[in-house]
Design goal:
The chain has about 575 residues and is an alpha+beta fold. Helices cover about 30% and strands about 20% of the residues. The chain has 17 helices and 19 strands. Strands 1, 2, 8, 9, 10, 11, 18 and 19 form an 8-stranded mixed beta sheet that branches. Strands 12, 13, 14, 15, 16 and 17 form a 6-stranded antiparallel beta sheet that branches. The protein has a 3-stranded antiparallel beta sheet with strand order 3-5-4. α1 runs parallel beside α7. The longest helix is centred in the N-terminal third of the chain and has 21 residues. The chain is globular. It starts with 7 loop residues before the first strand and ends in a 6-residue tail after the last helix. It binds flavin-adenine dinucleotide (FAD). The site of flavin-adenine dinucleotide has 42 residues, from α1, β17 and α17.
């Protein structure tokens, strides 16, 4: 119980702390089950990292795949996870997730504003692992009309500016291909022109784009559904501490713009504060490559400072420490902003395109650039001698730079000048000049490029097997490589100066280590017993992937699914069959 008088007290059935996918999925579900729900969000806008994300969710056996004829028994994705996670595989939890995921999708698409697009051609990350799929195991949020949020659109966190064009998010897949081909193919040019004109019109009328895509569409659809179902979403209202009655968690104290508010929640509290990507102390404890906690530049939302984990611990919850990696690692570059700060840009797209290599300060490649962000970053950490900074450079030539762009530097016709002027992109007329600008060993870089270029015509990366898995290939550019006569969709020469580089540092998309939970998302105490009234969602929940990264969407898929499960448990409703 509260020891001092709050400025106000509120009551609800379920209090959800945090407004990303983990929190909103639970809030929408609980409201549909008849609960009175309050969502408390610390930031001035809702959406968290989810609003910046690709919006992809790993959801095997989902209804869109089944409708397209992709059917597989539960044992297939289960076996893939077993092989991927090894001795960290928790069959009970994996089974719960895989059984619930299709039903969760069915609920959202039939009862809420959220619609999905299929990932039927998107392979799992590790095509060599037994039972990996070539597609059909993921979904993305479909584009969403922001006008459906009415006045609350102002409270929706916009997409990360550096990943947009004048604030316009670009949907992955076909739309992104149109943007990359706009200067070469009339159909793509026309598509992009229409899209940009519509966006400018939105900017004039609404002061922001209204065609929302990716994670921004996911949050907008969830928030619209929540508001329509009567959920209160209170922004700028961080939870400061939990309220308890004996062992039971009964609510939380919020610091709101109108003062302190005690929220009493009859059915409990769900913590979904997005893990600890910006909590230096926890990073120092759990990320070996960040001994002071500062050597890790997460691309996650800055408000995710580990509050949920601390709140959970204050009630007896335990943070898992046995994950292979405590974070969803990703190569990140630091983009200078006019105000002197740096955006943390995650490199998710261009690494697999033909004509790019990634080297360390010795000028040598160290991994398959087209592998997943998690794998690439693990390889970089492993390749970095103790005591040296974890860093590398993405290197390409002029043609690649103008065709694909490099990180936050956009392709033609967007100007490159500002990114050269602010030092984000380094340029050299020759490779040795580029090496000098970056502090890379020039002879090492020249030898690496020579060897790489010689391998391009063979189509075989004899060093790191780039382009050999279905995931590598789909991330490459088969059509463009074929036009040029390059047999490998991920390999093109780095040959025509000027040459460019962007420095990569250690980062992540979010964190994996979180509060230990049971299959109903109830937080467990040190004896393994559920703490009454306390749930964890999203990245506040110890990841079922245990630090592995088997496929794209393995944070949002479980976040949505366990949010849906937690809401049923809190409402005392059995999961629908
Ligand atoms: C560029 C990018 C692309 C990505 N793409 C994908 C993808 O396609 N698929 C995928 O699975 N994952 C993706 N990720 C990772 C994914 O976005 C995150 O893992 C996921 O969004 C986490 O969801 P969440 O609900 O746990 O946290 P968030 O979405 O971060 O929400 C947490 C919220 O809690 C709030 N909060 C924090 N403390 C408090 C407090 N004390 N009181 C109240 N509120 C609080 C925060 O402000 C935040 O709004 C991507 C990440 C990035 C950066």
């Amino acid at each position: 119980m509260s020891e001092r008088s709050p400025d106000t007290a509120l009551s609800c059935d379920l209090l959800v702390i945090g407004s990303g996918a983990g929190g909103l999925a639970a809030a929408v579900t609980a409201a549909h089950l008849g609960l009175n729900v309050i969502v408390a969000e610390k930031d001035a806008q809702f959406g968290g990292t989810t609003a910046w994300s690709g919006g992809w969710m790993w959801l095997p056996r989902n209804p869109l795949a089944v409708e397209a004829g992709i059917t597989e028994p539960i044992d297939e994705p289960l076996a893939y996870l077993r092989h991927e996670l090894g001795d960290r595989f928790d069959e009970a939890r994996a089974r719960t997730f895989l059984e619930a995921a299709p039903r969760m999708v069915e609920f959202f698409r039939s009862k809420t504003a959220l619609r999905f697009i299929d990932g039927n051609a998107i392979p799992d990350f590790h095509g060599r692992t037994p039972h990996a799929a070539l597609g059909g195991r993921s979904l993305c949020a479909a584009p969403f009309d922001g006008r459906r949020l009415g006045g609350r659109i102002a409270d929706l966190k916009p997409a990360l500016p550096e990943t947009t064009l004048w604030g316009m998010g670009i949907a992955s897949g076909a739309e992104l291909r149109h943007f990359l081909n706009a200067m070469r193919q009339p159909a793509s040019f026309w598509y992009v022109t229409k899209r940009v004109l519509a966006h400018w019109k939105d900017l004039l009328v609404h002061r922001r784009g209204m065609r929302l895509v990716n994670g921004n569409a996911l949050v907008a659809a969830l928030a619209t559904s929540a508001l329509e179902a009567g959920v209160q979403i209170r922004t700028a209202s961080p939870a400061r501490r939990l309220l308890r009655d004996g062992e039971r968690v009964t609510g939380a104290v919020l610091a709101t713009p109108d003062g302190t508010v005690d929220v009493h929640a009859r059915c409990g509290v769900l913590l979904a504060c997005g893990g600890f990507p910006h909590d230096s102390a926890r990073k120092a404890a759990l990320l070996p490559h960040a001994p002071t906690g500062k050597e890790h530049w997460s691309a996650a939302s800055p408000g995710n400072t580990g509050d949920g984990l601390r709140l959970g611990e204050s009630a007896g919850g335990q943070v898992g420490t046995t994950a292979l990696q405590a974070a969803a690692l990703a190569p990140v570059s630091l983009v200078p902003r006019p105000d002197g700060s740096f955006a943390h840009f995650p490199h998710l797209i261009e690494r697999a395109k033909p004509g790019l290599i990634m080297v360390r300060a010795n000028g040598q490649r160290f991994t398959n650039e087209a592998d997943s962000y998690h794998d690439v970053m693990q390889a970089l950490i492993q390749a970095t001698p103790a005591g040296q900074p974890v860093q590398a450079w993405l290197v390409c030539d002029h043609h690649f730079m103008r065709h694909y762009g490099l990180g936050a530097a956009k392709p033609a016709p967007m100007p490159l000048g500002p990114m050269l002027a602010n030092g984000y992109v380094k340029r050299g007329r020759t490779l040795p000049e580029l090496a000098r600008a970056c502090g890379i060993a020039a002879d090492g870089l020249e030898r690496t490029v020579q060897r790489y270029n010689a391998m391009v015509s063979t189509g075989k990366d004899a060093d790191f097997a780039k382009g050999e898995t279905p995931y590598n290939r789909i991330q490459g550019d088969a059509a463009f490589a074929a036009e040029r006569g390059w047999p490998n969709p991920c390999m093109g020469p780095v040959e025509r100066g000027p040459f460019y580089a962007v420095r990569i540092v250690a980062g992540s998309l979010g964190t994996f280590a979180g509060l230990q939970v049971n299959a109903s998302a109830q937080v467990l105490d040190a004896t393994g017993q559920p703490i009454p009234g306390l749930y964890a969602g999203g990245n506040d929940m110890d990841s079922m992937m245990a630090g592995h990264y088997p496929a794209g969407g393995i944070t949002l898929g479980p976040a949505m699914t366990f949010g849906w499960i937690a809401a049923h448990h809190a409402a005392g409703h059995p999961l629908p069959l």
